[in-house]
C-alpha cells in the first residue's frame, strides 16, 4: 500500500517576479515588484479586473474595490461569493430588497423548527451548529434536506434524501401541501406579499405523489416537513450550497423564500431565513462593495444619487453600469477583452468549475499579479507575486459574519519575512498610479466607510468593542436595531410597511449535465470537516483525520464496480478525467458519488465539474456533474 501525504504550502515571505511565464520566479525588492505590478496593470487600462479576498478584512475589501473603481475606473471587481452564495444575495434582494440573512444565531436557539436545506453545517459551519444544537436541546425539531445522509442529518428528526437538483419540486410540493391543508398564513400573505394567486397556480401540479417520483423522497416525509414548518410558532429555514451551486441557484433560493412568505416565517424574532455564508468575511466583502453591482453599504451603482455621493467623497467618476462578475471576467479573458487581473487572496486556478479551462484562460492573460499568503496554483501562473499578511491574527480590522455582525479582528502574530498588509500594498500600488491615499490605520479606512454607508454609520470601533460586535443595519451611534430584518412586513400601518415581498415564480429545471449510459453516476462536490476550500490554508498540518481526496461511493456501487476502499479508479466526466482512490460511505445512495475540492494537487476535482452558470448570479453548477467510473487494469491501493 502506498502512503499518501497531502501537499503542504509554505508562507510567502518576499515578493517574486519574472520576465516571462517560461522563467522561474526570482526574489525581488518590494520597490521592483510594485513598479512591475503598476506597469502591467497600467498598460491594460480598460481591460482590467480585480479579485478581492473574502477572508481578509472589511477595510481591505473597501480599499480593493476603491482601487478598481477610482484608480482603474472599472466596476470589474468580485470575489468567491460568485462561486458560492451570490444566488442567495440575488434571491433575497429580489424578495426583500436586501441580500443579507434575516435572523441572528441567537434566534436559532429559540425556535421550534429548523430546516437545514442543502447545508452540512455540522462540518461547514461548526460554530453556528453549536447554536443549532442548543436549539435542539431547547426542544426544536430539525429537518435535513440533502441527497447525502450527512453528519448534520444524523442530528435531525427526519432526513429527506432527495435527488440532486430536485429542490424546486420539493419546495413547490411543500408549498402546495401547506395551501391545501389550510395552513397558509393568509393574513400575512395579504399584508406583506404580492403574487400569491400566481404562486398557487405554479405549485398546484406538484402533488405529493409527483414530488415523490421526482425527488425520490417518500410523500409522507414531505408532508410531515410541510406540516411541521407551517404549524410552528417560530421556524428557521437555513440553506447553503446544496441550493445555490446549481445552474438555477437563484430560482432555488426563490423557491425556499416562497415558503417563508406563505407561512409568515420571516421578519419576526425566531423566524427567518439563513443562507449560512461560506468564508469568514464573504458577507463583509460584498457589503464593502467588492462586487460588480454595488458600492459600499450594498448601494446600487445604477442609482444616480448614490453615484454622486461616492463621486464627491472619492473625487472621481463612477462608471454608471454594473461591472463584470467573476464568471463574466473569465469569459472576457476568453474573448480577449480582459487582459490583466489583480488577484488578492483567491485561488481560481483550482476553485473555478472546469478548472483546466480556467487555467488556460489565466495563462492567456497579458498580466497577472497575485497577492496571497501562500504560493498557490494561481500564483504559479502570475507575473508578480506579492506576499501579504493574513487577515486573521496578523491584521487589525473588522469582518462581518453570516448574521451580519461586524466584529473586530486583531493583530496577535508577527507576519513572516517581508510580508506586508493587504491595505498597504494596494495603497502603494494606487500611489504609483497617481492616487495618494493616506490611511493611517484600519480605523481610518473604517471611518471613511462609515461616512458613505448608512447601514454602518453607527458602528465606531469603540462601539464594536463595547457590544462585542454589532449587526447591520446600524444607522445611529445611539442604540441598536432588532436582531432580525424585515420587521416592517408586520407593520399594521401600510405607510410604514415599505415594499411588499413578491412570491418567486420559478420552474423546475433539472441539472444541465445529464446522466446517461456513458456517464451513469451523479457526482456532487462539497466539503469535509478537516479541510478548507482549495486546501491552501489547511495544508499545513498532518492529522489522521485528513485522509486526502477520495471518491466516495455507496456500498452498493462499490460492490457493483468490484472496488474496495483505497483502490484507485479512473473518474471521467464530459470535461476531464482524474484518478482517485475509493471510499465507501453509507451516507450515499446508489448512483450518487461525492468528492471535495480540498486536495487539487492530488486530484483536481474541478477538472470534472461543469461551467453551467446561473444566469442571474453567475454561480456554477458544482453540485451536479455526470461521471463514469472505470476500474484500472492493475489494482493499486493507497491509504
Ligand atoms: N470544514 C470546512 N468548512 C467550511 C469550508 C470548508 O472548505 N471546509 N468552506 C466554507 C465555504 S467557502 C462555504 S461556501 C461553506 C459551504 O457549506 P455547505 O454548503 O454546507 O457545504 P457543501 O459540502 O459544499 O454542501 C452542502 C451540502 O449540499 C448537499 N447537496 C448537493 N447537491 C444538492 C442538491 O441538489 N440539493 C440539496 N438540497 N443539497 C445538495 C451536499 O450533499 C452537501 O452536504 O462552508 C464553509 N465552511
Ligand atoms: N468542486 C467545487 N468547487 C468549488 C466549490 C464546491 O463546492 N465544489 N465551492 C466554491 C466556493 S463556495 C468557494 S467560496 C470557492 C473558494 O475558492 P477560493 O476563494 O479561490 O479558494 P480558497 O482556498 O478559499 O482561497 C483562499 C486564498 O486566499 C488566501 N488568503 C487567505 N487569507 C488572506 C488574506 O488575508 N490576504 C490575502 N491576500 N490572501 C489571503 C489563501 O492563502 C488562499 O490562497 O471554491 C468554489 N469551488
Ligand atoms: Mo464559499
Structure commentary:
The chain is an alpha/beta fold. The protein folds into 3 domains: 16-80 and 281-469, Rossmann fold; 86-275, Dimethylsulfoxide Reductase, domain 2; 521-631, Barwin-like endoglucanases, CATH 2.40.40. Helix content is 33%, strand content 16%. The chain is built from 24 helices and 25 strands. The chain has a 7-stranded mixed sheet. Strand 16 (397-400) and strand 17 (405-409) form a beta hairpin. Helix 2 (58-71) crosses helix 21 (442-452) and helix 7 runs parallel beside helix 13 (249-263). The longest helix has 15 residues, at 249-263. It is globular and about 70 Å long. The site of one ligand MGD has 30 residues, from helix 5, helix 12 and strand 20.
Name its key features.
24 helices, 639 residues, Rossmann fold, Dimethylsulfoxide Reductase, domain 2, binds ligand MGD, Formate dehydrogenase H, molybdopterin cofactor binding, binds molybdenum atom, 33% helix, Barwin-like endoglucanases, six-stranded mixed sheet, alpha/beta, single chain, iron-sulfur
Write the layout of secondary structure elements.
Elements: E1 16-17, E2 26-27, H1 30-42, E3 48-51, H2 58-71, E4 77-78, H3 86-96, H4 105-108, E5 113-117, H5 121-124, H6 126-137, E6 141-145, E7 158-160, H7 167-180, H8 186-192, E8 193-194, H9 196-203, H10 208-215, H11 219-231, E9 235-239, H12 241-244, H13 249-263, E10 272-275, H14 282-287, E11 294-295, E12 299-300, H15 304-314, H16 326-334, E13 340-344, H17 348-351, H18 355-363, E14 367-372, H19 377-381, E15 384-387, E16 397-400, E17 405-409, H20 422-432, H21 442-452, H22 461-466, E18 470-471, H23 494-497, E19 501-502, E20 521-526, E21 551-553, H24 555-561, E22 568-572, E23 577-584, E24 592-596, E25 625-631
Parallel strand pairs: 3-4, 3-13, 5-6, 5-9, 6-7, 8-19, 9-10, 13-14, 14-15, 20-24, 21-23
Antiparallel strand pairs: 1-2, 1-15, 11-12, 16-17, 17-18, 20-25, 22-23, 22-25
This protein binds ligand MGD (2 copies) and molybdenum atom.
